Amino acid sequence: MSVRYRTHTHSGFYDRYMQSRAWRRKRRRKLRRTGGRCEACGLRGRLEVHHRTYERLGHERMGDLRVVCVHHHASITRKHDQGMPLAAATDAVVTRPVVHWWDR
Ligand SMILES: [Zn+2]
Fold first, then answer.
1. What whole-number distance in Å separates Cα of residue 34 and Cα of residue 27?
2. Residue 60 Cα to ligand 1 middle (Å)
3. How far apart (Å, rounded) are the C-alpha atoms in residues 29 and 22?
4. How confident is the model at residue 9 (pLDDT cuts 50, 70, 90)?
5. 88 lies in which domain range?
6. Is 17 exposed, middle or buried, given 0-12, 13-18 or 19+ CB atoms closer than 10 A?
7. What's the whole-model pTM score?
8. pLDDT tens-digit profile of 34-65?
9. Ligand 1: distance of its center to the CA of 100 in Å?
């Protein structure tokens, strides 16, 4: 399934979900998993919790998410905008994600 991420940002559910307590809690949990660091460069600071896939939007697994700094988030978005599927673009930037087997 290749759903472009732009499509999701325009869907009402996505916007509502991003405001929800459930997402905020999941986001915090993911940030704790990576020790509050970008999974690509290890930087602390302005971090974003990125969806590698929207397949399970609303009931994501920790393994569907990546913690990235604004710079690495922009690299993922650029690759995706150039036509690379989202998961591949994510994996090209975050090559060694902090994903435990129980998170998959
Ligand atoms: Zn980074």
1. 11
2. 22
3. 11
4. low
5. 5-103
6. middle
7. 0.86
8. 999 999 999 998 999 999 999 999 999 999 99
9. 20
Cα-Cα end-to-end distance for the chain: 18
C-alpha dist (Å) from residue 20 to 14, 17, 67: 10, 5, 19
Helices (H), the chain: 5-9, 12-18, 21-33, 70-81, 86-93
CA–centroid distance, 35 to ligand 1, in Å, is 13
Could you please report the per-residue DSSP string of 70-82?
A: HHHHHHHHHHHHT
Is the model more confident about 101 or about 30? 30
Residues with CB under 5 A from ligand 1 (ion): 38, 40-41, 43, 69, 72
pLDDT value for 25:
96
Say how many domains are in the chain: 1
User: Ligand 1 centroid to 75 CA: how many Å?
Assistant: 9
Q: Ligand 1 centroid to 37 CA: how many Å?
A: 8
Please state the rounded mean pLDDT for residues 84-99.
95
